[in-house]
Every structure is written in C-alpha cells, then in structure tokens.
Design a protein that fits this description.
Helix content is 42%, strand content 26%. With 260 residues, it is α/β, with parallel strands linked by helices. The model has no long low-confidence stretch (mean pLDDT 92).
Length: 260
C-alpha cells in the first residue's frame, strides 16, 4: 500500500472505528458462518486474517482452528478487536499492526488467509494477493469476501465514482470476474464462490464515512439519478420514505496451487 493511501486509510478508519464496529453487515452472524463453513476446517489450522478491522471474522474462525493472527494498519481498530476477543474469552487470537502489501512473515506458515470486506481498500490488489499467496502453504486456502460491482463496465464506474466521493480510502469495488482473474494470476485456483447481497440505507451509509457536505450532495443526486435504468447496478429505490440500495457481495475461496 503506498504511503499516501495508507495514511488516508489509517485516518479514515481510525476516526470511524466505532461506527464500523457497529456495522450490521460486518456483524452478520449468518454471513460469518457461511465463510467459516466454506473452509472445511479441521481444528489444527493456523489462520491469518488480513485487514481484520474490529475482528469479527477472526473471532468467528477462532473456535474452529488452532490459532488466528489478525493484522491491520489501523491501531484504533485493533484495540476494539483485542477488547472484543477478550470479552468473548477467545485466547487463541493475536492482533498485529501491519500492511497487507508487506506482510511480516518470512515463509509459508498459514493454512488459511482471509480478507473480509477490505479488498476494495487495497491500492495494489495483485501485490496484496501475491503477499497472501507467499505466506500460505501449498494447498492452503484464501477466502475473500467483498462487495462487487456490476459486470457492466459503465455501471461499475458509476458505482465507484460514488464510493470514492464517500470514502477517500476506497480504491475500487471490482467486478466478480476481475477478482477471480486476479486470484488466478496470483497463483490460486478458485474452488468455491457464494454470491449474496446486503441492503443499506443511504443515510446510514453516508454517516458511517462522514464525507464532505459537497460530496454528500453529489452522491445523493447520483443515487436518485441511478433509479432510472439502474445506472449504478445497486438497485437504488425508495422504501418507507428512505433511499435504499443493495450491494452485491461475493465470497470467493481459492486454493494455492502446488508447485510441479
């Protein structure tokens, strides 16, 4: 992650740690159970949870594996993760400050690497995937869950324009096909994929990131315009007097290819 992007991300998530900790999508237990279930865990695994944030996935994985290391560039997020794990009595989670583009591990030592709702913040996605592949043992599994944009390039650009106006740390919501292609290039064979969706109220979504007032005005206009012809691919609509939209999400599991 380049220095500027890292600084922006640390500032953005540092000041909004509590808001993200209370985000319903991140806390969704059924979704967390789906991710855990896809990994077919046996109990002996060592897991690295990249961009762990407030630690929801790390805590969901911990009862099913030997140990979990959570890594994130935002100390404020990790403080909440440490506190939450302690409150749940989970003593097999270790949290470290670190950067996905420069993981502090020298050899393939993990059975599973995970990244949940964070890939869209990685400025160099292929470098990040290569780092995650480097620390995985051959045959190890990578699971990425994230919002994905429409396969329609124009709609994808429309959505990402709004995302960048809302959150300066946002890089890109990728199309599902792009994500799978990048995983393939980084040395993974995609072995499973589960699609889903998550509804957001526009007002709450904006409050989570606190963008400048001028950006809020532009985003609201773009959301309203999107209703005619679904310009953003987000199915923007009005429900009970409030603007609502739906993120498409993907959980993608890749296996690190073994050397011949």
């Amino acid at each position: 992650m380049n220095t500027y992007s890292k600084k922006v991300a640390v500032e953005q998530f540092g000041k909004r740690s509590n808001a993200y900790a209370a985000c319903g999508t991140l806390m969704d237990q059924a979704d967390l159970d789906t991710v855990v279930g896809l990994l077919d865990l046996k109990g002996h695994e060592t897991v690295l949870d990249v961009a762990t944030g407030t630690g929801y996935l790390a805590m969901a994985l911990a009862p099913h594996v030997n140990n979990v290391i959570g890594i994130d560039i935002t100390p404020g997020m990790l403080e909440l993760a440490v506190r939450a794990a302690r409150e749940k009595g989970l003593d097999n989670i270790e949290n470290l400050v670190g950067d996905v583009e420069h993981l502090p591990f020298c050899k393939p030592e993990f059975d599973v690497v995970s990244a949940r709702f964070s890939f869209h913040h990685f400025p160099e996605p292929l470098k990040s995937l290569s780092e995650m592949a480097m620390v995985l043992q051959p045959g190890g599994r990578l699971v990425i869950e994230d919002m994905v944009s429409s396969e329609d390039i124009t709609k994808s650009e429309y959505q990402n324009t709004m995302e960048n106006l809302r959150d300066p740390s946002h890089i890109r919501h990728y199309r599902a096909s792009d994500l799978e292609q990048m995983m393939h290039e980084a040395g993974f064979e995609v072995v499973d994929r589960v699609g889903g969706g998550s509804d957001f109220y526009l007002d709450h979504w904006l409050e989570m990131a606190e963008p400048p007032a001028g950006n809020v005005k532009t985003i609201r206009e773009m959301m309203r315009d999107s209703m005619d012809g679904d310009l953003s691919g987000l199915n923007v609509r009005v429900e009970d007097g409030q603007i609502v939209f739906t993120y498409a999400t993907d959980i993608v599991v890749g296996m690190k290819r073994r050397s011949d």
